[in-house]
């Protein structure tokens, strides 16, 4: 997943009121996380497991790792 504004891949998935969204750590832009399969474009949900995000696509059959959140920059 990438930032739509600047194309950076330094993005993290966060959960908000309307589902997951992406925040760019470079330019602070936010955007909705795509709710479709990266492979076949079918509508598919995102599932979080720890820092890893999987796409469950019925058409493709198996969950696919699509994003891993970077380690939070704290302290
Ligand atoms: Zn950006
Ligand atoms: Zn698919």
Word description of this protein:
This protein has 75 residues and is mainly beta. The protein folds into two domains: 1-33; 35-67, no CATH class. 0% of the residues lie in helices and 40% in strands. The protein has no helices and six strands. The chain has strands spanning 11-16, 19-24, 30-32, 45-49, 52-56, 64-68. A three-stranded antiparallel beta sheet has the order 1-2-3, with no helix packed on it. Strands 4-5-6 form a three-stranded antiparallel beta sheet, with no helix packed on it. Strand 5 (52-56) and strand 6 (64-68) form a beta hairpin. The termini are far apart. One zinc ion is lined by residues 37, 39-40, 42, 44, 57, 59-60. One zinc ion is lined by residues 3, 5-6, 8, 24, 26-27, 29.
Nutshell version of this structure?
The protein is an all-beta fold and 75 residues long.
Global mean pLDDT: 92
| Backbone shape | globular
How many discrete domains? 2
Distance between the termini: 26 Å
Bound molecules: zinc ion
The main pleated sheet reads as: 3 strands, antiparallel
Cross-sheet strand order for the largest sheet: 1-2-3
* Spans of at least 5 consecutive residues with low confidence: none
Count of β-strands: 6
Number of separate helices: 0
Return the string of H and E elements.
EEEEEE
Estimate the strand proportion: 35-45%
* Global structural class: mainly beta
């Amino acid at each position: 997943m990438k930032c739509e504004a600047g194309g950076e891949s330094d993005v993290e998935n966060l959960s908000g009121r309307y589902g997951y969204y992406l925040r760019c750590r470079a330019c602070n832009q936010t955007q909705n996380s795509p709710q479709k399969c990266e492979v076949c474009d079918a509508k598919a949900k995102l599932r979080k497991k720890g820092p890893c995000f999987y796409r469950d696509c019925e058409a493709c059959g198996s969950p696919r790792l699509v994003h891993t959140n970077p380690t939070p920059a704290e302290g």
